[in-house]
Amino acid sequence: MAYPERMATEWTAAMVAALPEDGKRYEVLDGELAVAPAPSWNHQRVVAASWRVLDAHARTKRLGEALLALADVEFSPQRLLQPDVFVIPWTADGSPAGSFADVGRLLLAVEVLSQSTGRRDRGIKRRIYLEENVAEYWIVDADAWSVERWRRAEERPEVTIETLAWQPDPEVAPLMVDLPALFEQALGE
């Protein structure tokens, strides 16, 4: 009897939900399981600084709220992601969402690069976010103190090291993120 060299498994969000808690980050990227170790402290400092700026703006301007990983964003059973930071709109009645299913879309997804996730963040995750109609996707490089901003309609990112303007609603003044100040606050260098 011939055995296949490799058993193929199509992972789903439900399968990940059944895994035991072990401190690792599990995502399903087009049916493939992606596992990442716990992030570094500096990674988390940049995540926290980004969240503080985005959440304050989103709430003040009544756009929604920013959330942090480890929170699931399930686009489909084969697409379960945990962005480092993401902004969701309020629900139709103006209240905070209880889950991604309550709003079904992201205003912004942010990933902070690390050695173990950089290729994935710039590759398959970027493609998924843009295919799922996420208006903007930011890839934050804490080593270079820069942000790559990807938008759905553009083929290349905008890379910035100074000021990043975010305006998900044209009726609302943009958030102006001073990147050197954000990295200084987060990393103290």
How would you portray this structure in words?
The protein is of the alpha+beta class and 189 residues long. The protein has one domain: Alpha-Beta Complex (tt1808, chain A). It contains 6 helices and 12 strands. The strands form 3 sheets. The protein has a 6-stranded mixed beta sheet with strand order 3-6-7-8-9-10, with helices on both faces. Strands 2-1-5-4 form a 4-stranded antiparallel beta sheet, covered by helices on one side. The longest helix is centred in the N-terminal third of the chain and has 20 residues. It is globular, with a radius of gyration of 17 Å. The N terminus is likely disordered.
What labels describe this entry?
189 residues; alpha+beta; tt1808, chain A; four-stranded antiparallel beta sheet; 12 strands; globular
Beta content comes to 25-35%
- Helix count from the secondary structure assignment: 6
Which fold name fills CATH's third level, the topology? tt1808, chain A
Major sheet strand order: 3-6-7-8-9-10
Main beta sheet: 6 strands, mixed
CATH top level assignment: Alpha Beta
Order of helices and strands: HEEHEEEEHEHHEEEEEH
Unreliably modeled segments = 1-7
Structural class: alpha+beta
